[in-house]
Amino acid sequence: MKNFLYLLVLLPAIVLAQQGQIIMNKIDIKPNSRLAFNGTLSQGVLLHDLSWAWASNNACFVQNRKEKFNGNHVFFEGVIPKNSDMEVTVVPKDPSKDLSIYAFQTSVFKKDMVPNLQRCVRCEADWFREAYYVGKEPQDHTRTVQNLIAISRPYRVVIAVVGAEGLTQGDFQIIVTTKSR
Prior knowledge:
Largest sheet: 6 strands, mixed
CATH topology: Jelly Rolls
Number of domains: 1
Order of helices and strands: HEEEHEEEEEEE
CATH architecture: Sandwich
CATH class: Mainly Beta
Shape: globular
C-alpha cells in the first residue's frame, strides 16, 4: 500500500518532467491587422496526452490524425478583439518541414491549457493531408486555421504550432490576420 501511495504522488511529477514546462509566448493581436511572429520547435514541449483534442467538448482534431500532432508544441496566446475574424497561418522556414497548427478559444477569464483543457468555445486545426479533397486547393508547406471569431466580446486564443511525425526541430513564422466583422 505504501508503494502504491508513492506511485500516486510521484507519477504526475514524472509525467511533467518528461513533458517539460509549457512556455506561453504572449502576442498582442490588433484589430484589422496582419502581424508576424517567429518561433522554433526546439523551444516547444512534447505532449504525451492528446486525448483532449478528440474529446467532444473540444473537437479539435480526430484521434486517427494524432501522428500529425505528436512533435514539439510551441504555444502563443493572445486576445481576439471583439467584432473580429481571425486567421492564423504557419510558414516553416524550411518548406520540407511538416508542421501542423491548431488554435482554441476560451473566455478571457479562463486560463485552461492543454492537456488539461476541459472545454473550449472553438478549436480549429490544420495538418498535411495525404489525399486530395474535391473542392480544396492542393496543399503547399503552409497550414492555416480560420473561423476564429469574436462577436460581442473578446476571446482568449491559444495557438499551437506542432511538429508532425515527432518533429522537434525547425524554425517557423506565424502570420495572424484579423478583420472586423
